[in-house]
């Protein structure tokens, strides 16, 4: 399993497109942990009705490093690999598969 960690701060307008690009990966044994790191106003994380997604919110901004560490601590104990994802990046459908194969 892969844990994909995404720290989000403001920038809600690009989030849905980025999430869609992760959810259509050819490698599907992953979880996606998303955390709004104290955005003002709080962002709305799109709902995809996908049990691989876990979302969280920090009341105050922790900063990227601390927020990613928080997400890492909340990830599945069965994860063998970890990666980070940016809220405005778009991934090719085979991105995770190629990472695992590498």
Structural description of this entry:
The protein has three helices and four strands. Helix 1 links the parallel strand 1 and strand 2 (30-37). The chain has helices spanning 12-23, 64-74, 95-101, and strands at 2-8, 30-37, 53-58, 81-85. It is globular, with a radius of gyration of 13 Å. The mean pLDDT is 94. A four-stranded parallel sheet has the order 3-2-1-4, with helices on both faces. The protein is of the alpha/beta class and 102 residues long. It is 29% helix and 25% strand.
Describe the structure concisely.
By secondary structure, the chain is an alpha/beta fold. The protein has helices spanning 12-23, 64-74, 95-101; strands at residues 2-8, 30-37, 53-58, 81-85. It starts with a strand and ends with a helix.
Distance, first to last CA: 15 Å
Cα shape: globular
- Total beta strand runs: 4
Structural class: alpha/beta
Largest sheet report: 4 strands, parallel
Roughly how much helix do the residues carry, as a percent range?
25-40%
Instruction: Encode the helix/strand succession as letters.
Output: EHEEHEH
**On the 0-100 scale, what is the average pLDDT?**
94
Strand content: 25-35%
Poorly predicted runs of 5 or more residues: none
Number of helices: 3
Q: Give the spatial strand order of the biggest sheet.
A: 3-2-1-4
